[in-house]
Amino acid sequence: MFRGSAWLARLALGTAALGCLGCAGVIIVSGRLSAMSTVSAVAVMAVLVATALASGGAALLVHANGVRRIALELIAFAVALLAADVLVRIVAPEPASIMEGRVVDAAKLDVPFDGRTKSEVVADLRAHGKDALPGISREWPRLPYIRQQLPDGLFPLSHASNAAVVECNESGRYLVYHTDELGFNNPPGLIRGHNVQVAAVGASFTLGHCVPDGQGLVARLRQFYPQLADFGMAGSSAVSMLASFREYVEPLRPPIVLWIMHPLTADTRDEMADPILRRYLEPDFSQHLLQHVEEIDQAWRNVAVGAQYELDYRVRVMTRTVRKQKFSGILTLSALRWRLHLNERLAKPEPPPDLGPFQQIIALAQHTTQSWGGRFIVVIVPLYAEVVAHDLPEPLHHDRLAALLRGMRVEVIDTVPAFLAAPDPEGLYVMRRNNHPTPQGHELLARYVIEQMQGKPVAATLAASRGQK
After folding, report:
1. Where are the alpha helices (DSSP H) in 31-135?
2. Contacting residues for 90 by C-beta, under 8 A, at least 6 apart
3. pLDDT at 329 > cutoff 80
């Protein structure tokens, strides 16, 4: 009996050894090794090979009682890992979509959450007679199935004009705002009045993403600068920001230009791949979009609703697939690896972004602004990824970018210290997650920017942020 159990134990250890070697071979053949960092690849292969050698050696060399003990301990360890993976899938599964994750966060905080898709909200508004459209990201025209529906040779840089735009939902309620005569989030008539004193160019922070209309950074700045025009649009990077500046800000020649950027906008790789966008690095290139407002309006009214429905449909299909396959991948411990962030930690770091195009873009915008006697200010706003998660690539850290720009003699307002000085920086982001700032966060940013613009010391703002509740 004991002899038979010893042979079973030796068989189990031999199987474990062969399994580890097989895993190593699969990783090599599948090419996954190339996706890991050098340290991670060496560590993973070393663990697999060492485990294989130890298991095989134990099966061949260790006496019967030792073999049985080792085999039982390995089996217990494997069962514990599998049980932990199953437990993660049942108790705290990975959300099947971003929206599902937000619904879960809201439930934990006992916050009511509108779980409708953007398409459903648009349809409901239209049923009540509203000229509603889904919010459009600057990434949309770069998607092939959307680009082929747009006019040839045209890259729109705005929403449709005079429409109710359903933008986003992070806090439980959708942000719905009305676009102006050019398709931006401004009071009607502000731009056409040609009395713009401040122009803000940027991405989602500038637009006022996901906070109630009127409570975003630019809306709060407008309380001090009533003639402030907002040219922000979600999904923007530095190239499309330069394009917006060229098309819409330059004709207005405002006394002040605010270039409101978060660190990721300095990474221009995706936008530089677009043949139209990258031409904006040519100083004289323009699509003359002010002459194509009606064409842009018609294009988005023809395309946007169907495109959003397609995006929502894809999310629904993916969500159903994830739920059906809830217990797939248990043998590879995929849920446990996700919960421990092992995939990210093992992955090969992306190559650092080339900041050359970003510097060129800033130089172009600054030179043009100064040519009409304007003041050009870069405002760096804080990302959750840097302030809380601390996983932003080092070349994009706020202080690195601020030093780079100041070395170019660019005026910089770096607002990140205001968030870092707060006693609870995570609480300044919606749902305490990787979302946009809360209304309180936007208020803190606006106060900081105004003090800097007016040449006042920022000590009071930092002190106020430390007392932020």
Report:
1. 38-61, 64-91, 98-108, 118-127
2. none
3. no
Note the pLDDT tens digit of each residue in 231-290: 999 999 999 999 999 999 999 999 999 999 999 999 999 999 999 999 999 999 999 999
**Rounded to an integer, what distance in angstroms lies between the CA atom of residue 8 and that of residue 280?**
70
What is the amino acid identity at position 150?
Answer: L
Cβ atoms < 10 Å from Cβ of 162: 14
Report the C-alpha gap between 223 and 257 in whole angstroms. Answer: 17
Any alpha helices (H) in 250-355, and if so which ranges?
A: 269-272, 293-324, 334-339, 342-346
Long-range contacts, 121-127 (Cβ 8 Å, 24+): 121/166, 121/174, 121/176, 122/166, 122/305, 122/308, 125/164, 125/166, 125/176
Residue-wise DSSP of 209-220: TTSPTT-SHHHH
pLDDT in tens, 388-409: 999 899 999 999 999 999 999 9
Structure tokens at 185: 């989030």
Specify the amino acid at residue 41.
Answer: A
Which tokens in the block code for residue 364?
Answer: 């172009």
Please give the structure tokens belonging to residue 16. 């474990």
- Give the span between the Cα atoms of 29 and 34, in whole angstroms: 10
What's the longest Cα–Cα distance across the chain? 95
Q: Contact, 291 vs 414, CB < 8 A?
A: no
Q: Is 112 exposed, middle or buried (0-12, 13-18, 19+ CB in 10 A)?
A: exposed
Phi-psi region of 136 (alpha: psi -120 to 50; beta: other; left: phi over 0): beta
pLDDT confidence of residue 298? 96
DSSP class of 280: G
Q: Half-sphere exposure (CA, 13 Å, Cβ side) for 133?
A: 21
Angle at 346 between CA 341 and CA 348, to 5 degrees: 125
Residue 451: helix, strand or coil by DSSP?
helix
Count Cβ atoms within 10 A of the Cβ of residue 236 and give its class: 0-12 exposed, 13-18 middle, 19 or more buried. buried
* Residue 93 DSSP symbol: P
Nearest Cα neighbor of 171 from 438, 469, 446, 444 is 438
Can you tell me which residue has the tokens 């004009």?
Answer: 161
Segment 145-152 shows an average pLDDT of 92
Question: How far is the C-alpha of 179 from the C-alpha of 165, rounded, in Å?
Answer: 7
What does R_g of the chain's alpha carbons equal in angstroms?
27
Residue 329: both structure tokens together: 């991948």
One-letter amino acid at 120 equals E
